[in-house]
Amino acid sequence: MELQVIQNRIYEMRGHKVMLDFDLAEMYGVETKRLKEAIRRNIGRFPPDFMFELTRDEYNFLRTQIASLETGRGRYSKYSPFAFTELGVSMLSSVLNSEVAIEINISIMRAFVAIRQLILNPPIDKVGELQNEVRELKQYIEEVFTDYNDVNEDTRMQLELINETLAELQSKNKELNKPRNPIGYQHYNKEPKE
Fold this sequence. Notes:
The radius of gyration is 45 Å and the shape is rod-shaped. It has 194 residues and is of the alpha+beta class. Strands 1-2-4-3 form a 4-stranded antiparallel β-sheet. The chain has 7 helices and 4 strands, in the order H-E-E-H-H-E-H-E-H-H-H. Helices cover 60% and strands 7% of the residues.
């Protein structure tokens, strides 16, 4: 059986990763009723950490979450399903001693291991990484432009001071280079009268 198909049938209930009896029965190729009978005959092999029965509320909630759980007369059991933890699924292979059960159990165990690996080592989120890099780059650019604007503001102020100083020097220079009146006696060239 395909690993993804099995993984899609593993649910989170009461803090455990579990598989439900009707999904397991379908995979094993038996009726859910027959699976439950085999479990009840061997109930000592299924302590609460291996298997538990869903409450009515849990089952109803589950039915709303999973589109494949349809309502209708005779479609599904009127009793709440059993939920099997990884240990419970493993124990099922000893209760359902058939080649199909053993083969399916091996696939299910691989699916549980794969899910555990995903939890321990989540896949690298390339989009998330790119978003973080873009965010960091944007922050860096904003800091650079802020620094650049600060430098520009400082430079602009210095240029204004230089221009003011040059303007003052030019006005002083004009004053200094203004033609002066000669000091002393002035000679007038008088032209003789005719």
